[in-house]
Amino acid sequence: ALAHARFEGANPRIMIVNTPSNPTGSMFSGEDTQAIAHWSREHSITLISDEIYAELAHGWRAHISPAQFYPEGCIVTGGLSKAFSAGGWRLGYAALPGGAAGKQLMTSLRALASEIWSSATTPVQEAAVVAYSDNTELTAYVRASARIHGYATSQLYETLIKAGALCPRPAGGFYLYPDFAPWRNALLARGVATSEQLAQYLLNHWDIATLPGTAFGEQPQALRLRLATSMLYTPAEAKTENEREAILWAMLSQAEKWEDGGQVNEIALEMPALAQAEARLREFIGSLG
Length: 289
Known about the structure:
Strand order of the largest sheet: 1-2-3-4
Low-confidence stretches: 264-269
Distance between the termini: 40 Å
Number of strands: 7
Shape: globular
Mean pLDDT: 91
Oligomer: single chain
CATH topology of the largest domain: Aspartate Aminotransferase, domain 1
Number of domains: 2
CATH architecture of the largest domain: Alpha-Beta Complex
Largest sheet: 4 strands, mixed
Helix content: 40-55%
Number of helices: 10
CATH class of the largest domain: Alpha Beta
Strand content: 5-15%
């Protein structure tokens, strides 16, 4: 792709990678990360590594940043809301290369930022001061959160695979990206030919909310959807914020005792919404024959 672009007269100088990935939940291996970094250096490409889900690696595969192999040409970005499972508390950061190039880039970014936004809200700034301090309790909280995300996505992944769906194994974050191509003919018989139609069909007929693959640049005919597990951790019966918070803190306390990459089946009893989602997906796929 780079050679073709340069042949056509373009001059690409930046490549963006996202690992762990949204929407797939997959993550580069150490070997792949090193290869990407070396290729970028060889072709004078600045690498922007979006690592906003890095702290939510599930444990069975270690997250390795390309900045370890290409520090002089890699910009690492991240943010508060995903790393700390704090949806809506948005504050991002960029770690720039050292040296003169990094200083020049910092000057340009500051000039750009001053014309686009002023600052994060005060509560978010106060939260960030605590979040990015050396805090052992928060470190334990983040690891426990990652283990819960890992458990939920692995459970849903196994359900999808056993039912016959195609799906990358999630390694970080709280997303899955199944492909329903094996049931294309059955879905066509129901008037479903695109991922957008499939997402709408699941919402209307099965009360399953998803995002179509077209939201991530897929061709419409690709029957891939993004699923998110982050709303499946508390039962629907927990009506108040206090009830939901108590359930989540109990789960976090239990998850702190797990080994990274491990699973504790007992927690399934505390995640009825996840079990319901699994059952509904099995029923939907079963209806396709």
